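Hi L.,

You mentioned the student needs an example of a multi-chain input paired with its predicted structure. This one should do, with 601 residues in total across all chains.
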Amino acid sequence: MTTMASTGPADADRTPALVVSNVSHSFGERKVLDRVSLTVEQGAFVVLLGLNGAGKSTLFSLVTRLYDNVSGEITIRGFDVRRRPSQALQRLGVVFQSRTLDIDLTLMQNLKYHAALHGFAGRAATMRAKQALELVGLADRANEKVRALSGGQVRRVEIARSMMHHPDLLLLDEATVGLDLGSRESVMKIVRDLVAKERIGVLWATHLMDEVLRTDQVVILHKGVVLYNGPVPQLLTLTGTSSVREAFRAVTGTQTTIEEAA
Amino acid sequence: MISSQTVTAASDVAANYRGSDDDARRRLGFAGYFACFKGIVWREILRYLHQRERFLSALVRPLIWLFIFAAGFRQTLGISIIPPYETYVLYEEFIAPGLIAMILLFNAMQSSLSMVYDRETGTMRTLLVSPFPRSFLLLSKLLGGVSVALIQAYAFMLVAWFWGIAPPPITEVKLFTFYDAPSWAGGAIPTMTDPIVTSLFSVPSFIQPFAGYITVIPAIILAGLMLGSLALFISSVIKQLENFAGVMNFVIFPMFFASSALYPLWRIREASPMLFEICRLNPFTYATELIRFALYGQVDTVSLALVVGCTIAFLAAAVFAYNPSKGLIARRGGPGGSA
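Structure written out for the whole complex:
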């Protein structure tokens, strides 16, 4: 329909969903990220693997502009988050580790508020909220209060919330923490389906090894440094191990398994 | 690798679902801003309506002052006729504007504290990942808090009305200008001896009986915005004030007592010239006076100028405190969840 002849950097069809290049960040003396670089292509599922305290949340805070990245560059679909924050943030959806929904309000009220944060009102907001709820299979509960939902369902609503403005990049910070096995699987399936169907780029931060599939790209972040960045099979070959868990231990040199450390 | 044909097909689907740049530009236009503003304010009101305790305590607090404190105090304090009053007024009537300002102050402190507390949680972070400018988002959020305070103020005025405390009928809206330069200004600022009253416009007769309830609205919004941005700035800067008791002792009580909310300033001057000067430096005094005059259909020029000036200054400071590169979020260390 519309010609994409405008001069935005997102014109090139294959502009990666996210590019982080050479980003460092310190809190006072403590360096939390040291020259971190990674890329999330469109339609890629990238697992950001690291222990708690590895710097995953800090990296997310920089991408979402809660903190400003002073060194290095972060672009979302080619838009620099510092220089063109509005364009960059329009293309970004985030599922935070902490809760963002108001439990006393209904799913619909919550989603309409988040639609408003992206400039949608009235029928457009209602329609998007409905679509998003269908996406996560909760359309029939739109008028219930969030309080009535289970932990896994709340997570699914969070995903619906983050997808309402149709982002190109979806960040998920420990999205499955505190969920039982069944809910974890359904949350992961929803996100992986989004990658396959909508070709959004996903950066999935976790400390749970079993969430990594052989087809994923994995970025191992340890003490603020990227130790490995590439496909899973290559990681296994490189370390001469047979599982991601062992490979992680080999790369980071940690003795404990990652789940124990968490 | 995948063939170029699959790539095109897939990105077509993506373009349909994800929308185009045109679409994006449209929703960040004026209508988008308005939708965002409305959404934020409406959420504050919805949330407030779900917290009955908060509503009740916000109502009970000023009523205690009105019914108990004022009743006991009016025997000991004679109020002379000072503008905007044209006759002797009951002490209850005198402190009502101060109590409205107190509602605004409490509400400002409560909502700003929760904003700072929320900052590390998802609620504030989702607000800040909105593509609209942060100053706009914070202003909307503050105005959401002011809307809640407005509801509280009207609930208070309604109860006061049953008690017979109501603004008088207003026939015309006037501009009131009077300035008494402080002694420390050393004559640098000229002192006016007589107030200048300029008539602005007359009020239609069917509105006159309750016009005060309408003319007070802009004063409440402005004063609420000033106190809200001050509260937001204070709570971002001072880490120790994260509990409400600290805020009561170090912010709310000093601001409330060292102001013209409970006693006219000339009374304080008689008691202690120094305290008088402190009251004059207190922005809360001007918030109170702005509301007091507005209830009588008058615009107190000096208070208006000072409240507008303070609002701009505090708002700028609050936005600065939230700026990711310069602000205090970055300096305070990592998010709670990462440790």
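You could point out the following to them. The first strand of chain B starts at residue 172 and ends at 177. Chain B has one domain: 30-338.

Best wishes,
N.
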